[in-house]
Amino acid sequence: MIIKSALLKVTVITVVTLSGISSLIATTKPAPPPRPNIVLMLADDLGYGDVGCYGATRIKTPNIDRLCAQGVRFTDAHTPAAVCQPTRYGILSGRCYWRSEFAGDAYYFHEGEILLPKVLKDAGYNTAAFGKWHLGWGTNKLATAEFWNGELSPGPLTTGFDSYFGMPHSHSQPPYVFVENTRVVKLDPADPITLTPKRSQNWKYTHDFGGSAGAKAAHEACDMNNLDLILARKVDEFIARQGKDKPFFAYFPFYAPHVPLLPNDRFRGSSKAGELGDFIQQMDEAVGLILKSLEQHGFAENTLVVFTSDNGGCYIQESIDLGHRSMGRLLGLKGDAWEGGHRVAFMARWPKRIPAGVDCDKLLSLTDLFATFVAAAWIPLPRNAAPDSINQLPMLEHPQATPAIRAEMVYSGRGAGLRSGEWVYYPVPGPQGLFGLSFYMKQLGYRNSDYDDKGELRPDAQPAQLYNVATDLEQTTNVYGKYPEIAAQMDARLKEILKQKKSR
């Protein structure tokens, strides 16, 4: 009895003491750390092998390489689609594009969607977008000259950005002018923009998608050979205006290295990979300007910087002839469901939270940026938001110790494929892409068991494709016939996922 009483007494004292400590902690709980600034830089058509830290030897990218060395480099990061609009939609909405619909030239998002810029803005962030928007303007599927001469809405500001400055589409699409917020820069009502048929004007204002004419001052204000450098300076001005009392989100989708390749005279001939390399090196300088701005204005330590691409690259004959391989070891290119279409360079730096000089080989999708950014900003993910986004912040902070967070994702070219663990499945033969194969497979020496030496599909090619990308990253050998049970399971899962599509 004495022993029991003593034990009881000790137990009671312990509980009271812990309760008192808990009460003290509750009343003196430290405030969460300051929310980070966020800078997202998105290259356009940058191949997996187009920068130094991913193996390029004929293109020099010291600023991108420095960013890579100061943070974590992902080697298994993927875009949700192998072309740009669906990827950009996925980043800002946290949704795969097959849940929605293409909108032509019209504003890409629909009423009720919860968008990343708006979530950050509502939480107190200053938000700004610069560069290639390419997610639609207005409500008509085909934007007219009349539209470009007026108020440009809906557009970037509708998504939650406080400000926008850039060209409205790719620099291969009219109109070839800068837009600031909701108006064309330096547009003179007495000299309106007109749209013209394909290749009907001076090369500077025309490309495969058509041309724009008139609006002399507006066109002259948009220096096509210096787009990314001009915009990097705009980002610098935005950063310089920020205070320490309120975080900011800067979204900068570059124009390089999408065609037309337009390096300025200073960079022309600077690489050993032709105009493609020159244009990438010019983009690298723009990256350096932004990193320098963060340092000069005291924001580098508490800013999460991400650099990546919207999809894989394109093969340019000049760079091939000079010995450059834009996709490195990967089979495929922009538009393909094969790895070269969507496996991209991805690096993240945040000195306060992310280790420097570390590689991560875990699966990541660019749709994951939504959930990851809001988690980094201490913002609860809104209900029904970002259904295809997974918080990868633990992976950024502990890239080697954290088990894989994402187990699967859908890859898209013109068709779709499923990644599950180390397996990739495609329900049909071929890359399901936008471009032919023979012109680069033969030249570059890439091999696939379903294709002959000329890059033509064999008559006896298997009806679907299965690859283990852990052991066959180059996708040389289709093992669909060897593992029919795995293929059947993945086919059923892919169909199940794609049934989740929801139209506008």
Number of helices: 13
Structural class: alpha/beta
Helix content: 25-40%
Q: What's the story with the biggest beta sheet?
A: 11 strands, mixed
CATH class of the largest domain: Alpha Beta
Describe this protein's structure.
This protein is an alpha/beta fold and 504 residues long. The chain folds into two domains: 37-401, 3-Layer(aba) Sandwich (Alkaline Phosphatase, subunit A), CATH 3.40.720.10; 411-498, Arylsulfatase, C-terminal domain (2-Layer Sandwich), CATH 3.30.1120. The chain has helices at residues 2-27, 62-69, 84-93, 116-122, 145-148, 216-221, 227-241, 274-296, 317-321, 368-376, 393-397, 438-444, 484-498; strands spanning 37-43, 72-78, 126-130, 163-166, 179-180, 183-184, 193-196, 206-207, 210-214, 248-253, 303-309, 343-349, 358-360, 364-365, 408-412, 416-420, 423-426, 465-468. Strands 1, 2, 3, 4, 5, 6, 10, 11, 12, 13 and 14 form an eleven-stranded mixed beta sheet that branches. The chain is globular, with a radius of gyration of 25 Å. The chain starts with a helix and ends in a 6-residue tail after the last helix.
